[in-house]
Amino acid sequence: MDVLLIAAHASLTLLSTRSMAVRTRSNMMLLFLCVLHSSAVFSRAAAGCGSSRFTPRMTFKEDGFSRHHLLGGYNSRVELLLGPTNGTVYVGCNGKLLLVDFQAPKKSEEVTWGHNVTVLLKNENTNSLFVCGTSGSQICCSMETLGNCSKHYDAKGIAPFSVNERAPSLFVGGELYSTATLPVRKRIGIRRHGGIQIWPAHNKTEQRYVSIVLSGPRAHKLEDRVYAFLVEKNSDSHPDASLWIPRVTQVCRMDLGGSKNILQQSWTSHLTARLSCGIHEKRVYFTELLDVAVLHSEAWNESRVYALFTNDWNMSAVCVYTMGNIDKVFMSSTFKGHSEEIPTPRPGTCVNDSKMLPDIVLNMVKEQLEMNDWVQPVGDGDALIISSHRYTHIEVDRVKGSGLQVHTVLLLGLEDGRIHKVLEQTGIPFIMAELQLFQPGARLLNMLLQSSRKKLYVSSNTEVLEVDLDSCMNYGNECELCVQARDPYCGWDPESMLCTAASSHTIQDVEHGSYTACRTGGHSEQYSRLENPPLPPDTDLPVTYVRCPMLSAHAEYSWYRGDTRQPCVYTEGDCLLLIEAMDQGQDGPYMCKATEAGYERMIAVYQPKTWSKATCSARSHSGILCALLLIVLLL
Ligand SMILES: *[C@@H]1O[C@H](CO)[C@@H](O)[C@H](O)[C@H]1NC(C)=O
Ligand SMILES: *[C@@H]1O[C@H](CO)[C@@H](O)[C@H](O)[C@H]1NC(C)=O
Ligand SMILES: *[C@@H]1O[C@H](CO)[C@@H](O)[C@H](O)[C@H]1NC(C)=O
Ligand SMILES: *[C@@H]1O[C@H](CO)[C@@H](O)[C@H](O)[C@H]1NC(C)=O
Ligand SMILES: *[C@@H]1O[C@H](CO)[C@@H](O)[C@H](O)[C@H]1NC(C)=O
Ligand SMILES: *[C@@H]1O[C@H](CO)[C@@H](O)[C@H](O)[C@H]1NC(C)=O
Ligand SMILES: *[C@@H]1O[C@H](CO)[C@@H](O)[C@H](O)[C@H]1NC(C)=O
Known about the structure:
Subcellular location: Membrane
Bound molecules: 2-acetamido-2-deoxy-beta-D-glucopyranose
Mean pLDDT: 83
Family: Belongs to the semaphorin family.
Largest sheet: 5 strands, mixed
Helix content: 10-25%
Domain Ig-like: 494-604
Signal peptide: 1-45
Pfam families: PSI (PF01437), Sema (PF01403)
């Protein structure tokens, strides 16, 4: 569409220009520049040239992705679970269950189950699949073979009613913790099934559960807790009040419920606290929690919770909390609405036999205890990332890079299926790359990280993809380019002379991306020499162009003739030098240089000597330009 519009616009303008008999070559040149700059397609890319550090440094369209198409139409929900062997993943969608094998696609299995899958878990205790689905009514069962229920379970409070309801659930030692809403909007919250059943005690305003995780294992099993992350509709209807309140709740794993009179079969350890996310100094706050990823640590209290928020302006924020921090709020904050002395044991303490808890404690918990203190993000208490992109999904990976240093990488998904690979650092986040996984119009529905194999599984409404996070070739075939990428998954291998998956002997500088790291080896002086600039057939052409590929959106690109800087026209991936025909005889060479982080690099050299005929390439933007040139020619 854009192409047609641009072309039409160009030809119209050119026509009128000609009729006014002012068809000079420099006018043509000007027109070119104007047309190119006025189009949205080009100006967006041009903005990327401005070295905005919120822009992904590089963009990859085809780089280590394997695809599996989900036949049978458009899905509104796709559940993902790692399969029994490397490279396999269970998929539940649109009445079907699949075991997709990315290593041996022919071995993939698919069965029709007849229910839309809403829960897909592995029960480690029985080593079977636990699957729930809906098809008007709800069903939950365990499966030894795909699609074949070997044992049925009561789906009440486990399986969501609709494919549109998200209700995260979790197996801990054979017991299932779920968060599905019951039909009558009552008693929403965490439920435990299998073993001793425990139900939520409260009926609250609307809640949406985002994630449920085990906070542990701790030194004593008695201390293990389960945390749920959720948003709750704000009951304050003041126009300035936020619509949602982000919260974390805790329950103890060993909770047996209350006494016969108070909280029988309900949680006696249930506490709730508010999550804070924003920038205090600027009074910017984020309240709509969308997704949570947990980076587990050996010490349970050092495990980090990465919470993704959005606000009314579709901005995003990522705030990081430690489990230790959350625990501290539950264990030491005062309780909302309670000024009297806190009874013993303190409400929320995990005890051996909660049925024996004193009435004063049980009665307090029954009131839906909330902490006065909010859980604050780590560091200076501000968000780790604030972005104008509206991210919807988050995964977080700990990456052991070159030299065995450990770095954290965030994988942030946008609704349209683009994934940003972001290096965690203080200050402005560094977006190493944007992966464009889907065709236009597709929607990102789910993301699943397999950290041990550095794979990210991503589903849209029509396909499931396996993405190699340590696919590094596209960063470039020079040590400097590999190092400037600052990607801890990647490093320069001085032996094979390739940018490759990081190992103990690869070269990388994640902290600074300084090309000087390459001094010890692997430096090369290659650049492309453009001998044949594309030129439409036949002569009498006022202008031609040569392309300088812009690999990094963080670099500055310029064309030079001698020491004179020549203006260039930015297109989606190139910095184009337009050369008027009458200039052709002039001395070259023309050189394109890129400067990034103090490293100047020659990208291309063009020596105008012989103009050879070239045919228009039909590829992407160069096609557009070719079309433009042809139009000029036809006139
Ligand atoms: C599954 O959900 C889709 C809508 O997302 C619906 O068209 C289809 O009939 C459902 N299938 C079953 C078996 O319920
Ligand atoms: C499902 O289980 C039944 C009974 O155990 C068995 O006969 C059938 O072959 C199984 N189907 C599959 C696809 O495994
Ligand atoms: C909440 O529960 C109380 C008693 O348990 C009941 O009186 C009230 O109607 C319930 N509210 C809702 C919204 O279900
Ligand atoms: C935010 O995004 C949603 C969905 O993508 C859209 O419907 C809405 O209009 C956007 N709001 C603003 C303020 O841009
Ligand atoms: C975790 O616990 C250890 C030992 O109790 C303590 O030194 C450390 O500060 C704690 N970390 C956090 C993040 O709470
Ligand atoms: C809980 O019970 C176990 C064994 O039954 C015991 O060793 C432990 O000391 C008890 N803990 C508390 C806090 O009472
Ligand atoms: C699966 O991948 C892991 C991590 O790369 C590897 O250690 C393991 O050997 C693989 N297993 C098989 C059966 O290939």
